[in-house]
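hey all, quick one before standup. I had two proteins in the batch that finished overnight and I want to keep them in one place so we stop losing track of which output belongs to which input. First protein below, input sequence then structure tokens straight from the run.
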Amino acid sequence: MRKSHLVLLGALLGATGAFVLSPGRVDLGRANAAPGQSSGAETYKKLTLFGLIFDQVRAHYVEKPEVQKLVESAVGGMLNGLDPHSSYMNAKEFDEMKVDTDGQFGGLGMEVTMEDGVVKVVSPIDETPAAKAGVLANDLIMELDGAPIKGLTLQQAVEKMRGPVNTNVRLKIVRKGEANPIELTLTREIIHVRTVRSRMEGDDVGYIRITQFNAQAAGELKKAISTLASQDPDKFKGYILDLRNNPGGLLDQAVAVSNAFLNRGEIVSLRGRDPEEAQRFDAKPGPGDLIKGKPLVVLINGGSASASEIVAGALQDQKRATIMGTRSFGKGSVQTIIPLGPGNGALRLTTARYFTPSGRSIQAKGIAPDVEVLQDVPADVQARLDLTSEAKLRGHLKGVGDGQEQTGSQSYVPPDVKDDKALKAAVDLLHNGRTTAEREPKEKASAPN
């Protein structure tokens, strides 16, 4: 059984996925000795073709090639030929991935965008260096440490603002209404990425949205439930868990989030090539169901992938929640992240499929909602809407078990809450007490106009 692995679950390389971080040792001998496969000697003999081509390219290509780029491209091609989620990450990409999954980094605490070649502040984050220094929404950052921003991409500018904790960065800011630029020196601190947001829908429904399953997700969820329940839990009709457009994240966080609504039973199982390495994750009594058996509606759509699908599938199979929206993305595979040593980055390799408590593999199929609700999509958005799914990805792992592969579903979420048909329908279901498991599958629901 794999130990000390980071399991990540997500839809695409740019998103998070079912993912395991190996302690850094790769057992090549075991792989080569697999029954029915070529011996190690035969395998490495076949690799002489790569060496021959590499030497020819390096010696005769029209321009002198960069050796590191050649090697990385060759490795990338090998992995891309396996499935859409296996890949090679160089050292920089590996570091960025760890920042994303950790959910925290050394920085200033601002949400920013790029406008006319300069960085524009969307919003400072409360209790961060930016907020404490008086940075305001709509401020334009012109310089960082005396160097102009113009000419940098947004990602390059963000990388310059991030850095080791307790180090300084100087900003030159242009603010509307101020005659002269404002110069500030900020000291970087640990910034926590906020992945859970919550609020009341009316005065009797708690709404919780999880945007990704990074290392902070389960802890933030518990705080959100505690805050909502402290207002007046007795009058609560129930809760809505919004996982729409959530691309996934860490497996342990998907398990912990599921456990926050379950007292017992299986949450998910992982099955790879070796039956002896199968793993099963069960709900634990402590802390158990944090909402004390209150009705629960889970919102999903075509942008809900992997870790999101684990949560939806567990709560659906355990008859703990009504799943509402449209069919999910359908990523039912697990990737293991294997560090390759200092400076060499890491290998992201698909190593298993996951299965819901009832034994369903959702690979290339997705989670079908109990109650299907389609959003009203504006015409200008409809033209750009791409119904992507795992089944549409070239070279995807084939689905196993019952059911046909599915080719995608609606992933549109209205930017204006008052136009959110699925959210309205969820509130309506909770108010009408129609969240029990004894319902017709895929019942059509519509929200009042």
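OK second protein, same deal, sequence then tokens:
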Amino acid sequence: MIAVPMQPRGPDIMRLPRLIPAHRMKFSGSALAALLFVVLVSGCGADAPDPAAASGSAALAVALVPVERAAVDRSVSASGAIAAWEEMQLGVEVSGLRVARVEVEVGDQVERGALLVALDGRTIDSELRQAAAALEEAEAALVLARSNLERGRQLRSRQLISTAELDQLGAGVVQAQARVSTTAALRDAARLRLDYATLRAPDAGVISRRDVQPGQVVMAGDEMLRLIRQGRLEWRAALAEGDLVAIQPGMGAVLTAPDGSVVEGSVRAVSPSLDVATRTGTVYVDLPQPGGLRAGMFAQGAIRLGDTPGLTVPLSSVVRRDGYAYVFVVDAKQRVAQRRIEVGRVSGGRIEILDGVAEGEQVVGRGAGFLSDGDRVRVVAADVAAANP
């Protein structure tokens, strides 16, 4: 049975709808479909949400922060190789001697004067003994020549010898003195050669390379070891000419080692000339405590130019889209406007704003990454926005 409302018979009388049997109702197929559509639409319309209400409930809660002037740590980023401050190539000054022992290995810390390599110096030691004996002989001959000269003077005073004979005695003393000097020099040379048969550290440092083995016959000038003087390393950073002019000796630098540790250094020297092809110069940064850095590594770092004041906002306020940086400002109707800015250095969780906003302006501090231009927002306190992002 389907209830169909009937027309009232009087203006003030409302009758209950009469029930008409379904088999007495005659509807075409199209009329029945239209009736069902009206019923469905009316039912759905009763539960449709209010767009305005939905918009208000979905507004994102944001907190505003002011654009403030603060100190910005300015620095110049660079990259370069880690190298030894001074790497000394060590060898001996004698040839044809065999290596007796090597006292160090790569990586050993050595002190100034420490024995590094000892050669077989028996041949030179023999030469030294021969030179010493020849010197003793020459000194004895000198003593005899002086005695002969003294006796000759006494004889000459008694007219027992001629003046020519006395002169010959005097010349003998001079010859003996010369022979003493010659043999003394030969002895000193042999002693020096024997000293050269041992290689000692010219300064404190770290052994960085070893090219010698026991039993090897060495020649004068052959490189046997390399020593990083005083164990000091430096960072040789390449900078473009525009950045190089701002670098001065004594400025601080920060490097990141491959293990993630931070290494501090200071600028030791700045190259006085540029590479003609690349238009870059080298900055030499001394690393007193290199940590995990090793000579030959490649490292990234930054050279600090000092602190200067600038307009800054928190990093969370800046959104990067399509290769540009933006912040959001809120108008009187609680809608955000996307504003393009130019950013500078990052320092202490804040980022420098070079252009696009003015000091004292309010920008969205939290939740900026979820916003689009024209979105409706609710401005709340910073602690509320943090609790309800």
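Flagging for whoever picks this up: Confidence is low (pLDDT under 50) at residues 1-57. Helices lie at 29-46, 51-57, 122-157, 163-196, 241-244, 382-387.
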